[in-house]
Design brief:
Rossmann fold, alpha/beta, six-stranded parallel sheet, 24 helices
Length: about 600
């Protein structure tokens, strides 16, 4: 007879999670972020309490941002560990949908545990339950279906016997990685079942390293050997596969230049002779020049987002061949690419062996020299300290005050483009950018997650005033937990990045900067006082020199440290970049729009 243990569904879930390990012997789920409500406090909340030593529970202030912290933890852990996030039903659950979309796009594991309606339907409609007149089985948690790699609604306790292994399989599988959502009906959380004891035995989930198919390897190696000008596009998969050393070895052995996506940046040190820097719309001239001429483009662990490819206008060689080394067949076949379906580390090592002594002639270092001569001037301390700082100068100040263990992070707005172009990333993992979803609100919460993943790293978060206004609540969480990291708030009094895009597509300045918003109020917000009110150490600086001085003090400050500096919303790096497809209105009364439309049509013809 099978030995059983009687547990509620919530207790069984927690017990199972505590026994799922990674190859290092750590629990794969490092903790659970929770905001309790009537949909999860009595069930899952009760189950988490006795397990808090094995599975720590962290209290967030907003369901979306605490999920961002969990996702950033996973990203900085190279997907080797993840976190769970639980909410009540209704708005608590739907708040997490944005974070689920972020994890889905970026292929990052997170276990989402939203509460749901009563499976038994006795008290229908329960508080916060929507009522679909045409479908009695639906709830707001159906919103998670398109942004979950695995979704299951638990209407019976025993359904966990199949649902939990499936959820973990998705989170750990490199090819299918992403958010797993178990929608927990609140009455079922408290229901008991006789679970097999064997279900809770410790289990180690190994990372699968898929080796390339021999035929695909033959085809790809032949293409590279026959190329006149190859380039490697390093994507985020390089980091997740822990393949940075394999990339370095491959590039050096075969003398093939490397360019980096937002997710791939820091795969090679910025000053490595074969690292030609950022690629694409937010890329630099060295990388984009090489890609324009390349006849073989080898993408490694990249999903070829439009910012990487310049909306597929970047690769201009008529004889070009696109190769995609990727664990996901979906990515490996994009845009007619020749696939090399494999783990990044295993694939690079096997391909290098196949190429044997083959070596290309490396591009001239003049590309890089010219680039840094131009861009280094943009990041220098200004001669006049009484002028508004530019974002480029802010980056320069942070760069000068950074250490070897510094991690800079950001997600949306102006800074991602400027950091991609200008930040000189050193060791792997020193650059953390969420640019798959480009989600405003990730920054502060993400910085908290990064520091929790790597407590010894010096974490510096760049955020604009717009993002700060959208999602600042986890600043209070960080203060409560005494987690140390630094936040640079660049206050340009509005959405400066989109204001520039608005101008760039012929539009009038409208509804982006405070001075152009409804009623024309030039609103001023005291971010320093606000941050201090939530428990952070906060300081406003008036110049780049003062910013550097404030940054130099960060190592003696406990908890989150917020530095606010006003910046000019208009300037951006004038060098680098490539075309990006942003549709311009075909008909307009504005001459500026009509001119931009003509230019847009011409750019599409040339792409």
């Amino acid at each position: 007879m099978t030995k059983t243990i009687r547990l509620t569904a919530a207790q069984a879930l927690v017990k199972y999670v505590c026994n799922q390990k990674n190859e290092d012997g750590n629990t794969f789920i490092a903790g659970c972020w929770a905001i309790f409500g009537h949909g999860n406090v009595a069930g899952l909340g009760e189950a988490l309490y006795p397990a808090r030593q094995e599975l720590p529970t962290f209290r967030g202030h907003n369901e979306q941002t605490m999920a961002h912290s969990a996702i950033a933890y996973s990203k900085q852990s190279r997907r080797r560990r993840a976190m769970a996030v639980t909410s009540s039903i209704g708005p608590g659950a739907t708040n997490m949908v944005t974070a689920a979309g972020l994890a889905y796009v970026n292929r990052l594991p997170v276990l989402l545990l939203p509460g749901d309606v009563f499976a038994g339907r006795g008290p229908d409609p329960v508080l916060q339950q929507i009522e679909n007149f045409a479908d009695g089985t639906s709830s707001v948690n159906d919103c998670f279906k398109p942004v979950s790699r695995y979704f299951d609604r638990i209407t019976r306790p025993e359904q966990l016997l199949t649902a939990l292994p499936r959820a973990f399989r998705v989170m750990i599988d490199a090819a299918d990685c992403g958010p797993a959502t178990l929608s927990l009906c609140q009455d079922v959380q408290a229901e008991a079942y006789d679970f097999p004891v064997q279900f809770f035995e410790p289990n180690v989930w190994a990372v699968r390293r898929l080796s390339p198919d021999k035929n695909e390897l033959d085809i790809v190696s032949s293409l590279i050997k026959g190329a006149k000008s190859s380039v490697i596009i390093a994507g985020g998969g390089i980091h997740y596969s822990q393949a940075t050393e394999s990339l370095r070895s491959f590039a050096e052995k075969h003398q093939i230049p490397v360019v980096e996506t937002q997710a791939g940046k820091s795969a090679l040190p910025w000053d490595h002779p074969l690292n030609f820097g950022p690629v694409g719309v937010t890329g630099g001239e060295p990388a984009n020049s090489i890609c324009e001429k390349a006849d073989v483009i080898l993408g490694v662990g990249t999903r070829f987002q439009d910012f990487t490819t310049g909306s597929w206008s970047l690769f201009k060689n008529p004889n070009k061949k696109l190769i995609s080394l990727n664990m996901a067949a979906y990515d490996a076949l994009k845009h007619g690419a020749v696939p090399l379906l494999a783990d990044a580390l295993a694939g690079l090592d096997a391909l290098s062996e196949k190429l044997s002594s083959f070596k290309m002639e490396a591009p001239s270092q003049g590309f890089k020299t010219d680039w840094f001569i131009k861009t280094d001037k943009l990041t220098e301390r200004p001669e006049l300290e009484n002028t508004l700082a530019t974002d480029m100068q802010v980056i320069g100040a942070v760069q000068r005050e950074s250490k070897e263990n510094t991690v800079v992070m950001c997600a949306a707005g102006t800074m991602p483009g400027e950091l991609h172009k200008l930040w000189k990333a050193g060791i792997p993992g020193s650059y953390h950018m969420e640019y798959g979803f480009s989600c405003m609100g990730y920054e502060i919460a993400g910085a908290l997650g990064i520091k929790m993943a790597e407590p010894k790293r010096d974490v510096i978060c760049f955020t604009g005033d717009g993002t700060y206004m959208m999602a600042n609540s986890e600043l209070a969480t960080a203060a409560m937990m005494k987690v140390d990291f630094t936040i640079i708030v660049t206050d340009n009094r509005g959405f400066g990045c989109i204001n520039r895009l608005q101008i760039g597509t012929g539009g009038a300045e409208f509804n982006n900067l405070f001075k152009h918003a409804y009623m024309g109020e030039n609103l001023s917000i005291d971010f320093t006082a606000h941050a201090a009110s939530m428990g952070a150490t906060a300081k406003k600086v008036a110049s780049i020199k003062e910013l550097e001085e404030a940054l130099s003090n960060r190592h003696w400050i406990s908890g989150p440290y917020v530095i606010v500096i006003e910046t000019d919303p208009y300037p951006s790096t004038p060098f680098g970049g490539t075309w990006w497809d942003v549709a311009v209105p075909e008909v307009s009364k504005r001459t500026e729009v009509n001119e931009k439309f003509d230019a847009y049509v011409q750019s599409k013809l040339n792409s």
